[in-house]
Amino acid sequence: MLPWQVRERRFQPSRLGRRGLDPDEVYAFLDRVAADMMALHAEITKQRQENLRIKVALRRWQSEQAEGGRR
Questions:
Q1: Which of 16, 21, 58, 63, by CA, is between 20 and 30 Å from 29?
Q2: How far apart are alpha carbons 68 and 46 in whole angstroms?
Q3: How many CA atoms lie within 13 A of 5 on its CB side?
Q4: Per-residue confidence of the chain (71 residues) as pLDDT tens digits?
Q5: Helix (H) or strand (E) run with residue 70 in it
């Protein structure tokens, strides 16, 4: 589930007065969950970019080592 899907989720208010969940409390919780998920998605993206940077550097280093061994 994506953060915007959590944030956009709305619940039907209880039709029986004070019974059921407080919609404001539910929405506040969903906003908090969405914010946490957004932070996690940002961290995952950052880690993937760093992983790619390291892979590229490793391939470059391996190519340089292979070329040096041929001489």
A1: 16
A2: 33
A3: 3
A4: 778 888 888 877 776 666 777 788 888 888 888 899 899 999 999 999 999 999 999 999 999 999 886 66
A5: helix 23-70
Half-sphere exposure in the Cβ direction for 63 (13 Å, CA): 6
Tokens read off for 2: 């994506």
In 3-state terms, what secondary structure has residue 71? coil
> How does DSSP assign 1-64, residue by residue?
--HHHHHH---PPPSSTT-S--HHHHHHHHHHHHHHHHHHHHHHHHHHHHHHHHHHHHHHHHHH
| Nearest residue to 31 via CA among 12, 6, 11 | 6
